[in-house]
């Protein structure tokens, strides 16, 4: 499909100044990709200046949260700009869309979108290790109609933000025993807005207690670990790498399954299974669990220093631990092009000068 | 607080033509109420022409579903226009807002909003019994920032739509045993977008089977009745009126608690308790359960004709049943001003001619 490039894009890009302090997801790139879908038919994509969307006050996205999104990054490599497994994001977004009765964005259109934004924003990809251009594809239901039903019209966007890693320091988790981020038979395994809205209250509560992130438990048993609000969970127990097995309420992180492959390839034993929270806390206390970390596109690998619970606060002995450091470096070495890409994970992007 | 009336409002209203066929929530009134909140401070409200909202592509509402809403109606009574217990909607919206870490809309601002829209749209309130001007107050997080955190800025709107009742015919329910609309410790008792997005797939599935609405089960036990996607559930069993007790995953309908009072006042026995789905289906089959209906602002009281389940399809013997008909009439008589308002439920609105 041919992509329309708005002539105003060049001006927007030339006038752009990189922010002094990057932060995460706050400074937006001055261009965005857009395509619309009416009654199941997709338009061609277009690259246009970043500008406010015109949304009908009765649009489904505003009332019934009919929206899903992805999070991915364009990395500066030795040779240029590259994306990490973008077809996996396309696939997951199609899954999320279907969960909310939205038309999946065709893979080719999705890839056009992220590639075009990365290509034109090549100069906005920061160069320090751990920094990148964060890309945010999203799909919203735009039909103006207040009945609880799927929209007949949709808009797909890719916006971008030059960013640091989401969590740079060590993270303090709090075991969330009251609230749930997703229901059994709910939307936990899809990347949809409602999962995140529901988690804000928990995050607010634990910040007051001096913690950074909720550790969500499985909604079926309320006693095993699922994940964090925007990252998957790993622990090193007796030298092996453990992570919760997919169960319908966990979002299947692309970093998660890539790390599983990478770790096995590096000789680690990896166990996908059930992690009972009380057992885990006992293992932290006894020193059997030496380290824990969270992973995700935004956070890369962030070491966990403490897990707090009503019964007390459990300190990990190794922060950051050797396994987390080893894996983080190995992953970033691939993403930032310092080693050969044996897994064939990177898609290089031909950049466009404006 | 003083309300600013945009001079363009008069022109918008004078040029408005009522749609030939009303439907529900599809034809929007040409004006809307707006107020904004920045860092916890609310602006004055304003009445402006209905127009697309300008929403930043990175706004929290689009990505993390930080939005909540209300549904209420302005009724044409003998004497003019009136609202039904609007302070209850204000209260529930404040509850929903807090669940998603949003600043509650102050009650006075909320009431200003719905009253002003009703006052200026008096000519748009249709006059047949069961018809009304549906009012949709909603609150959205507008800050442009991709971190999973509460917005620092919000917009509150009241839009309106001249409407028929949401479901006019008899409803065919399907027992939803796979999906859940809300989690234990989730957002089921708040009126927030994510609950509705997650229910679309179930609704789509059952429509293919010839049913109208999902009957949601309680997420904790997966075996007792909670409610419908936008209505509460009642059944007449052994002559008494039964409805599920509030349990944290049911939205507390204003129609629901008003009907409980009204029914008791009319001499019915009302039981709020647990309704086991298998027991209920047995009671329908044996004829002990003679009728069932759903209630809500949009649907008023809608009789249920059939409850379908994997094991078969259970027909209610009385459709519409005498209790549903009696209560529907008694409620509408109050709302449409045909009887004295002993409960003091109605708030009359001083209309404005433009
Ligand atoms: C709930 C949740 N879990 C896990 C992840 C990690 O997924 P990925 O590694 O694909 O970024 C994310 C973020 O994307 C998330 O939002
Ligand atoms: C999930 C849900 N349950 C019940 C109701 C009924 O509530 P009310 O009677 O206040 O309209 C609604 C609609 O408002 C709803 O969305």
UniProtKB/TrEMBL annotation, chains A, B:
It catalyses: L-valine + 2-oxoglutarate = 3-methyl-2-oxobutanoate + L-glutamate; L-isoleucine + 2-oxoglutarate = (S)-3-methyl-2-oxopentanoate + L-glutamate; L-leucine + 2-oxoglutarate = 4-methyl-2-oxopentanoate + L-glutamate. GO terms for molecular function: branched-chain-amino-acid transaminase activity. Pathway: Amino-acid biosynthesis; L-valine biosynthesis; L-valine from pyruvate: step 4/4; Amino-acid biosynthesis; L-leucine biosynthesis; L-leucine from 3-methyl-2-oxobutanoate: step 4/4; Amino-acid biosynthesis; L-isoleucine biosynthesis; L-isoleucine from 2-oxobutanoate: step 4/4. Its EC number is 2.6.1.42. It is an enzyme of class 2 (transferase). It comes from the Bacteria. Its cofactor is pyridoxal 5'-phosphate. Keywords: Amino-acid biosynthesis, Aminotransferase, Branched-chain amino acid biosynthesis, Pyridoxal phosphate, Transferase. The keyword ATP-binding does not apply. InterPro entries: Aminotrans_IV, Aminotrans_IV_CS, Aminotransferase-like, B_amino_transII, BCAT-like_C, BCAT-like_N, BCAT_family. The keyword Transferase applies. Acts on leucine, isoleucine and valine. Belongs to the class-IV pyridoxal-phosphate-dependent aminotransferase family. NCBIfam families: ilvE_II, PRK13357.1. This is Branched-chain-amino-acid aminotransferase. It comes from Microbulbifer epialgicus.
